[in-house]
Amino acid sequence: MCENARQWTLWAVALLLACTSGFAQDEPPTDLPPETTEEADPVPEDLLDRGTPRRAARGFLLAVAEGDYERAAEYLDLRNLPRGISEADGPSLAEDLDIVLQRHLWIDQEELSNEIDGMILSGTAGRCSAT
After folding, report:
1. 82-108 as b/e, with b when 16 or more CB fall inside 10 Å?
2. What share of the chain is helix, strand, coil (3-state, %, to 5)?
3. How many whole angstroms separate alpha carbon 40 and alpha carbon 68?
4. First CA to last CA distance, the chain
């Protein structure tokens, strides 16, 4: 049972932290000709302010503290879910993650990266945020 809780906790934290990479907004490439850059569609404003792991985690934690699991689900990366789980399950997944975080994990928000790309740790293949 303890091992199952540990696996669920790791999965839940990975889901929360993975969501920030999908919301990071890159600046337009500067090596393109000016006319291409000007014609490109503008990047939509992120009204939930999920631009960094720290801001995404804070937004998620504030939403669940208010019991707003619909909004909390907006902070999760709900792409590529296992078969049988859909984006419509987002509020339920947000509530489940809240329960796991309250019971099993302490997140020091100040330790989360406040950079758009997160933190690149040596020996890792991609972006991640240390917790």
Report:
1. eeeeeeeebbebbeebbebbeeeeebe
2. 50, 0, 45
3. 35
4. 24
- Determine, yes or no, domain membership for 76: yes
Hey, what are 12's tokens?
A: 């839940």
**Cα distance between residue 78 and residue 110, in whole Å:** 25
In a domain, 22, yes or no: yes
Total domains in the chain come to 1
Question: Letter for the amino acid at 125?
Answer: A
Residue reference for tokens 């993975």: 18
40 in any annotated domain: no
Mean pLDDT of 41-52: 80
Q: What is the pTM of this model?
A: 0.54
Q: Which domain holds residue 86?
A: 2-27+46-111
